[in-house]
Amino acid sequence: MSSTVRFLHHPTSQPCRAVHQFMLEVEIPFEDEVVDLIEGDNEQQSFKDQYNPTGQVPILCDGDFVVWESSAIAFYLNEKFAAPDNWFGATMQQRANIQQYLHWHSTFLRRGAGAFFYTHFAECIWGKHDYSREIAKGRYTLDESMVLLEAWLTKSKYLCGDEISFADLLGYHEFVSHVAGAILSDADWQKYPRVRQWFDTITARPHSKAVSEMIMQVGAMRQAGTLIPMNRKTSLAKGTEITPGIPY
Ligand SMILES: N[C@@H](CCC(=O)N[C@@H](CS)C(=O)NCC(=O)O)C(=O)O
């Protein structure tokens, strides 16, 4: 084990930004290594063998120890650097509530990323095609998720209590991408005022802007119609694709 960990990531990635912001908030020392997802460096077999068989980021290396999956990384860092209790919970119930959110997140709100990916990045990888079914699937999951978040936020200021936790950062960075890509209109936000307030509260935190800077720039470019040439071959948002024959 080492005192400085290596953080392999890409700033356009939602789960990477959540871990990045967590490390900045908790003042964890780390070496920053950007993996070129645009060129598809993560698609190389050597990358998968060395770091993560799924070829995804974020990844954390602590000496010879390698861990991937954003929540597992943040959990590890939380233990290693004895972060304040708010991030992963002080009591058994708080810890369970945070874990509940993190598990729910991977199968719901995270899947909503398809709305952003197929609107803005799919064309950069595979060219101009009709991605409307994939976008609709992402939108559907995003809307369903927002209904649940709105209800949760009637109970507390943050997703898992009155203090911020890693659950909030993970959820927040999904919305940052949707804002960057103008996926949600003003009318959409008006339906979910508590989600909006929660989003604004986290946006006001000291590190939110810096961590989100690149995706905001990329979103602005895509909204202006500028293509970002990508040499990668596969989806950046695996798991959000349409499976033929499966209704959504
Ligand atoms: N469940 C994973 C999701 C990670 C993920 O979706 N990473 C994307 C970037 S946002 C990625 O590396 N995509 C590249 C690829 O799949 O080739 C986590 O939370 O860490």
Give the key terms.
248 residues; alpha+beta; Glutaredoxin; Glutathione S-transferase Yfyf (Class Pi), Chain A, domain 2; 2 domains; four-stranded mixed β-sheet; 10 helices; 7% strand; binds glutathione
Give a short summary of the structure.
The protein is α+β, with helices and mostly antiparallel strands and 248 residues long.
What does this structure look like?
With 248 residues, the chain is of the alpha+beta class. The chain folds into 2 domains: 5-83, 3-Layer(aba) Sandwich (Glutaredoxin); 92-223, Glutathione S-transferase Yfyf (Class Pi), Chain A, domain 2 (Up-down Bundle). Strands 2-1-3-4 form a 4-stranded mixed β-sheet, covered by helices on one side. 52% of the residues lie in helices and 7% in strands. The longest helix is centred in the middle third of the chain and has 21 residues, at 132-152. The structure holds glutathione. Glutathione (GSH) binds at residues 13-15, 37, 42, 55-58, 69-70, 106, 234, 236, 238.
